[in-house]
Design a protein that fits this description.
Strand 1 and strand 2 form a beta hairpin. The relative contact order is 0.16. A two-stranded antiparallel ribbon has the order 1-2. The chain is globular and about 40 Å long. It is mostly helical.
């Protein structure tokens, strides 16, 4: 659950100063929440941050439309680890 706590901490810090354009759920899936994402979708994604076990089956298809490129995120994480 440490990841969930960290996610909530980071999001709450960002929301107070800037509007983030991405949100990452506890399982590592990233979603777009920028200006082009409807506010109801953004609210739903924020509500998922507090859920311990969110799965693809749980997330409605209309929300999955906003899922970002996980392959790009994984590649960037590998690049950072390599230094």
């Amino acid at each position: 659950m440490q990841g969930d706590s960290l996610s909530r901490c980071v999001v709450s810090t960002c929301v107070g100063s800037i509007h983030p354009d991405k949100i990452v759920l506890g399982d590592g899936r990233m979603f777009d929440i920028g200006d082009s994402t409807p506010s109801n979708v953004t609210e739903i994604l924020y509500s998922y941050l507090s859920m311990a076990s969110i799965t693809m089956v749980t997330i409605p298809a209309e929300i999955l439309y906003y899922e970002g490129d996980k392959a790009g995120v994984a590649a960037r994480a590998l690049e950072i680890r390599r230094g």
